[in-house]
Specification:
alpha+beta; Alpha-Beta Plaits; 2 domains; five-stranded antiparallel beta sheet; four-stranded antiparallel beta sheet; 7 helices; 9 strands
């Protein structure tokens, strides 16, 4: 029989023992409760002390609990698949890192995360812009046009490298411009990796809950302004995964276990 442990979802600012219902990860309808030390607590549920598979069902179950808690509290998300042996170990951890968690909770108080991806709609037009903006690329392409079939492999490779570098620079400039439009609306932001040539922006923004409408209005204005050129994918609100995703005992051999999970 597998040993039971305590699965940890997030940290919140409360000293009150609460029961959030049978919504625990793992499909067993385990009760999600709090385990507290002074005025901070961890949101937990029972779970076998084994590593969970990183699949959609499990990751969604984890996020669902954190987002349910976020309806009532400011949260510090804890990384997917973090398990403790028992409540005593959890209270010991809260006591040992009390000041750290308390300060982070104050930083994240009434904060939410909003995510924006930006994709160019017409890559043919984007590459044409790159050609017009870069004299060397334009010169080499004109040379190819005049000498079809007689252009060296080195010249073709040079163009490929120049275009790749120019595309990266254009992505950065475009993202810089979009981020600047939000000004002081966001407390801070984080740039994440993009995928493919079309995506030039993948950013997370940390904002105060009271400014969500202002942020919504800004993204709507941008969508209208760049309707023919850019597709924006706007998602949230989320817990501040990009700004306070807590790792507990990352060292091997500790009784707490975690498994890296990238959203």
């Amino acid at each position: 029989m597998e040993r039971e442990g305590k699965y940890i979802y997030c940290i919140i600012g409360t000293g009150e023992e609460k029961n959030l219902g049978p919504i625990g990860i793992g499909g067993r309808n385990d009760e999600v409760t709090t385990c507290c030390y002074q005025d901070i607590g961890m949101v937990i549920s029972n779970h076998p002390f084994v590593r969970l598979a990183v699949n959609r069902r499990n990751t969604v179950a984890h996020e669902t609990v954190v987002e349910r808690v976020m309806e009532e509290f400011s949260v510090l998300p804890v990384r997917f698949c973090t398990l403790a042996t028992d409540v005593e170990e959890i209270r010991d951890l809260l006591a040992a890192r009390y000041r750290e968690f308390k300060d982070l909770l104050e930083d994240m108080d009434r904060k939410i995360e909003l995510n924006i991806k930006g994709l160019w709609k017409n890559m043919e037009m984007t590459y044409q812009e790159i050609t017009e903006e870069n004299k060397e690329i334009k010169r080499l392409k004109e040379e190819i046009g005049k000498n079809m079939g007689k252009v060296s492999l080195q010249t073709k490779m040079s163009i490929g490298t120049l275009v790749e570098n120019a595309l990266s620079e254009k992505k950065k400039k475009e993202m810089d411009h979009i981020i600047e439009t939000f000004g002081a609306t966001a407390a801070t932001h984080k740039r994440n990796s993009t995928i493919g040539d079309e995506m030039f922006m993948n950013a997370a923004f940390l904002i105060d809950k009271g400014r969500e409408k202002e942020f919504d209005d800004r993204i709507n204005e941008l969508s209208e302004k760049y309707e023919d050129r850019i597709k924006f994918i706007y998602a949230g609100p989320f817990p501040p995964y990009n700004f306070a995703n807590i790792t507990i005992y990352p060292e091997e051999g500790r009784s707490f276990r975690h498994h890296a999970f990238n959203r």
